[in-house]
Amino acid sequence: FEAKRLRNEVSLYDPELEADRLSHLSLLSELETAITQGQLRQFVQPKLSLVGGEPVVAGVEALVRWQHPERGWLPPSEFVPFAESTGRIRQITQWMLEQAVDTLARWRAEDRFPDGVPPISVNISTLDVQDGLLPARIEALLRRANVPAELLQLELTETGLMASTQDPIHVMHSLRRLGVRLAIDDFGTGQSSLAYLQRLPVHELKIDRSFVDGVDQDAKREELLGSIIMLGHGLGLQVSAEGVENTAELAVLKRLGCDLVQGYLLAKPMDIERFEAWSRPLAVLETA
Ligand code: C2E
Ligand code: MG
Ligand code: MG
Ligand code: MG
């Protein structure tokens, strides 16, 4: 008992732990400021369709950035895991959804895309799929902006789904009934069984970029990627690949029949204004 008490006292006054606690608190308050004071930015990265002749923009993925007043632009890896562990991710998700729906409403009003407004995908965390009110909140956002549900897609990671303490399938069905599109993100990195995968009411399988990396240099990797694409098609899903960085990788994906591609080769994440300028030449080409 004595030894235990001693250890507790030691840990209570551990200066390192105290420093950790303080930095945790200050990051939390900075993040709250970021959310409420407008320091978050929504970037988008195009997804291109390989089905048909010339690649066309089939959608964009929304990616959060934090424009920190002192530390500059912060990528999600610097704050999304923290936001997830402190529950603040739900406010970030809500903000990302609002931005996406606002942008979709504006694109529709401006009649900017002659072949139709590209859907926007928003990344959703484990906490969000555990939130039974998510479908109602999304429905309200779409209705208020008069945006068709099929223009909004949600990306849920395979690991995020597996980590959910509640079965996410019920919420996913509600979302699907709304007409929202669903994708499994980072596919191949989680532990989901084929039986589980078959139960998921999703439209798209997004293959993790680790399967794309170097696929042009190794026949085994190409076979593995080909099997994943066939699996997705076998389940009746649209198949996309992320992290396409060079033309050799792109050629393999085309040959293997992957439907959609995303990666630095085609376009990096950019702010909405830059995306609008970037997509204009494509639209001009298509109508020419
Ligand atoms: P993700 O959803 O799998 O997004 C793809 C990530 O890969 C993005 O990183 C993107 O910039 C990066 N990427 C795209 N093309 C390439 C490429 O050719 N090569 C390489 N090496 N990387 C590429 P980013 O923006 O840093 O986001 C990282 C992760 O953070 C995302 O992975 C997603 O899981 C999470 N995330 C981003 N925004 C949000 C958000 O609003 N909410 C939630 N919950 N998570 C988010
Ligand atoms: Mg994603
Ligand atoms: Mg991904
Ligand atoms: Mg990824």
From TrEMBL:
Q: Where is the EAL domain?
A: 24-283
Q: Which UniProt keywords apply?
A: Membrane, Transmembrane, Transmembrane helix
Q: Does the keyword Transmembrane helix apply?
A: yes
- Keyword Heme applies: no
**Know the name of this protein?**
GGDEF domain-containing protein
Species annotation: Roseateles agri
Q: What is the lineage of its organism?
A: Bacteria, Pseudomonadati, Pseudomonadota, Betaproteobacteria, Burkholderiales
Positions spanned in the full protein: 274 to 561 of 561
